[in-house]
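Weekly modeling sync, notes
Attendees: S.R. (lead), two postdocs, one rotation student

Agenda item 3: backlog of single-chain predictions. S.R. asked that every request posted to the team notebook include the full sequence so nobody has to chase files. The rotation student volunteered to paste the first one in as an example of the format we agreed on. Action items at the bottom.

Example entry:
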Amino acid sequence: MTLREWMDERGLGHAQVGKALGVPRQTVHLWWQGKRRPQLFHALAMVELTQGAVPLESWLSQHDKLVLAGIRAGHDVA
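Predicted structure, as returned to the notebook:
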């Protein structure tokens, strides 16, 4: 699930989520739009806030998701 989906399902605004995460609403809006990715701390905080509904993997690029899938499949990375 994406941040956008999670927020929309719950009817939460950018300001509400920003307050919970300690960031301006504009920052949440950029994440929500997919124009920016959060730093690791905020991505982890979102996992906690959403009780795992928005996983860390949701912030990875398509390329990074493919690399991670290869590692999980046991492909040699060296």
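Discussion: group reviewed the output briefly. The helical segments are 3-10, 14-21, 25-33, 40-49, 62-72.
Action items: rotation student to repeat for the remaining queue; S.R. to check formatting next week.
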